[in-house]
């Protein structure tokens, strides 16, 4: 195959336009292209409003060597490639007398189960929440009535937290084994749209994800696997530093020498149990912050310099800033045309997330604006200190919103944070941080002028409240400084009339369950896996880690003979 990079076409184009452009680059007639496969598609908006779609494609031609020879001067754009397909490794020699147990059916658990089932291991997947359709009904009831089911919500249930977070599939994980591509292909086979195979920022949409995760589960069962819903694991069965199975909430014991912990990072009661069992864990850095909402049309204008029309998607962004104190502020889980959602999983604590449906055509766009926190910020010690820190923030968010999602205009939030910061400086100009002295009065509000009917788009009850009282001062100050810096290049981003809501506390796990090169904990047969265990940071990376752990199990054991 011949790979061609940087094929630029207008937003309004056809497949034939790409073929003609590829043929021109290769200096052949379009009819000479026998086959074309899109490898990557992205948007180039650097010269807005002159927008281009940029493709990377793989081309098959009759005389590849001759065509490549004619393109010698285009080595950076044209080269020969051999597409490497994912290969599951050969199975090990040790007999497996009991079926492997997978705790959790988020992306890590589902993909680990999928790969093991495909190889004949007939895994048993245990999920504390219900299947996807029942879970959807419980989540919508919570958003409508405010009554939380601690085991069936945005965090818990079939598909994990990813089911209600838009299905964003981009990842920064380096992948030389083809696991990323394998994940995307499996998702397409399960009902995801085919463009996720090549879009630079692929997404599925919460509405489609319900069907996708259901189809993944059905395939696992067709291959002999078993999925047990509303089955919460409450303890590990251990013998001489080896795992022998699990105990569930109803007192039942399920035996197996292989237990894969694909728990999400919201499974706080499970982490507490692991700590009691002295499973080696450590606190790790993660990030917290707030959701920030703008009118979708404003973000489109900022990013494209024009209305997107029918040929461009709702605009996304990825922004970062470094504060004077050295803290990094950045966007996370950006949802074009999406919604802020009440993502709580514990009574008396409020956490928010963001999601979009597949059309991404909601009135607002939102993103988490977050700042990294480390164990030094937690105000405690031990592996679960970050989890306790999360809970304190969520309790504050719940209290100031009286159970509803608390919302504040960015201008009011910013003013409260700066006033508090100046008060700490004792009104002495010499003690006021330099970046405060440089800050000028905010510009006129684009939102109030251009979008006078802008309102929060939130799934669940919400209320106006002092969001500035949730986070510690140092984090509030970093967010204001970072957002204002970003606003200098994105006119309208730091608008006084944008909304912030909180608290965004579940960006990734604050805990890592330690494992060795075989994928096992210090307890033999216990395999920590995925985002909750501290080895992933999103749907795709969690699914890839699930595949990795399936490989580790298979490398040791033969398919189950029970």
In brief, what are we looking at here?
The protein has helices at residues 15-26, 64-70, 107-118, 132-145, 179-189, 206-222, 268-276, 296-304, 385-401, 410-424, 434-438, 446-450, 473-489, 539-556, and strands at residues 2-9, 33-47, 50-61, 78-80, 101-103, 124-126, 226-228, 233-239, 242-248, 253-255, 259-261, 281-283, 286-295, 320-322, 328-335, 339-342, 352-355, 364-373, 405-409, 458-459, 462-464, 499-504, 511-513, 526-528. With 562 residues, it is of the alpha/beta class. It has 3 domains: 2-80, Alpha-Beta Plaits; 101-283 and 513-556, FAD/NAD(P)-binding domain (3-Layer(bba) Sandwich), CATH 3.50.50.60; 286-504, no CATH class.
Total individual domains: 3
Instruction: State the secondary-structure class.
Output: alpha/beta
Per CATH, the superfamily of the largest domain is FAD/NAD(P)-binding domain
Order of strands, widest sheet: 14-15-18-13-22-19-21
Helix and strand layout, with pairings?
Elements: E1 2-9, H1 15-26, E2 33-47, E3 50-61, H2 64-70, E4 78-80, E5 101-103, H3 107-118, E6 124-126, H4 132-145, H5 179-189, H6 206-222, E7 226-228, E8 233-239, E9 242-248, E10 253-255, E11 259-261, H7 268-276, E12 281-283, E13 286-295, H8 296-304, E14 320-322, E15 328-335, E16 339-342, E17 352-355, E18 364-373, H9 385-401, E19 405-409, H10 410-424, H11 434-438, H12 446-450, E20 458-459, E21 462-464, H13 473-489, E22 499-504, E23 511-513, E24 526-528, H14 539-556
Parallel strand pairs: 5-6, 5-11, 6-7, 11-24, 16-20, 19-21
Antiparallel strand pairs: 1-3, 1-4, 2-3, 8-9, 9-10, 12-23, 13-18, 13-22, 14-15, 15-18, 16-17, 19-22
Helix pairs in contact: 3-6, 3-14, 5-14, 10-13
């Amino acid at each position: 195959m011949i790979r061609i990079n940087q094929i630029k076409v207008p937003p309004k184009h056809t497949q034939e336009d790409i073929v003609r452009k590829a043929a021109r680059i290769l200096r052949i007639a379009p009819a000479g292209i026998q086959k074309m496969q899109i490898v990557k598609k992205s948007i180039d908006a650097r010269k807005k409003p002159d927008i281009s779609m940029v493709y990377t494609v793989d081309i098959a031609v009759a005389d590849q060597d001759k065509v490549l020879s004619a393109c010698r001067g285009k080595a950076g754009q044209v080269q020969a490639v051999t597409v490497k397909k994912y290969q599951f490794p050969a199975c090990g020699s040790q007999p497996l007398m009991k079926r492997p147990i997978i705790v959790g059916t988020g992306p890590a658990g589902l993909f680990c189960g999928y790969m093991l089932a495909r190889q004949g291991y007939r895994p048993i997947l245990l999920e504390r929440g219900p299947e996807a359709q029942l879970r959807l009904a419980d989540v919508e009831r919570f958003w409508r009535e405010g009554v939380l089911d601690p085991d069936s919500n945005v965090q818990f249930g079939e598909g994990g937290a990813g089911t209600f977070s838009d299905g964003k599939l981009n990842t920064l994980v380096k992948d030389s084994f083809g696991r990323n591509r394998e994940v995307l292909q499996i998702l397409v086979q399960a009902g995801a749209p085919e463009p996720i195979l090549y879009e630079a920022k692929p997404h599925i949409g919460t509405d489609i994800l319900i069907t996708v995760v259901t189809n993944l589960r059905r395939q696992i069962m067709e291959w002999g696997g078993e999925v047990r819903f509303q089955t919460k694991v409450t303890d590990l069965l251990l013998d001489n530093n080896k795992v022998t199975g699990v105990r569930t909430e109803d007192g039942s014991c399920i035996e197996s020498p292989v237990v894969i912990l694909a728990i999400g990072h919201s499974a706080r009661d499970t982490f507490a149990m692991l700590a009691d069992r002295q499973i080696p864990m450590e606190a790790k850095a993660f990030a917290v912050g707030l959701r920030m909402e703008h009118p979708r049309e404003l973000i489109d204008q900022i990013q494209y310099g024009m209305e997107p029309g029918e040929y461009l998607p709702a605009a996304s962004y990825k922004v970062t800033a470094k504060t004077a104190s050295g803290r990094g502020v950045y966007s996370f889980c950006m949802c074009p045309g999406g919604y802020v959602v009440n993502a709580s999983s514990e009574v008396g604590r409020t956490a928010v997330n963001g999601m979009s449906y597949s059309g991404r055509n909601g009135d607002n766009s939102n993103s988490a604006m977050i700042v990294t926190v480390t164990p030094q910020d937690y105000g405690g010690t031990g592996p679960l200190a970050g989890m306790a820190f999360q809970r304190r923030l969520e309790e504050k968010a719940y209290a100031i919103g009286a159970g509803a999602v608390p919302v504040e205009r960015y201008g009011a939030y910013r003013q409260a944070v700066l006033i508090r910061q100046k008060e700490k400086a004792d009104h002495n100009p010499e003690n006021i941080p330099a970046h405060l002295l440089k800050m000028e009065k905010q510009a006129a509000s684009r939102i109030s002028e251009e979008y006078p009917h802008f309102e929060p788009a939130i799934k669940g009850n919400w209320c106006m409240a002092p969001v500035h009282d949730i986070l510690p001062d140092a984090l509030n100050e970093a967010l204001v400084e970072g957002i204002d810096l970003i606003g200098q290049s994105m006119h309208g981003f730091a608008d006084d009339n944008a909304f912030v809501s909180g608290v965004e506390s579940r960006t990734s796990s604050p805990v890592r369950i330690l494992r060795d090169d075989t994928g096992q904990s210090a307890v033999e047969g216990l395999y920590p896996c995925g985002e909750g265990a501290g080895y992933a940071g999103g749907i795709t990376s969690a699914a890839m880690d699930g595949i990795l752990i399936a490989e580790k199990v298979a490398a040791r054991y033969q398919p189950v003979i029970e």
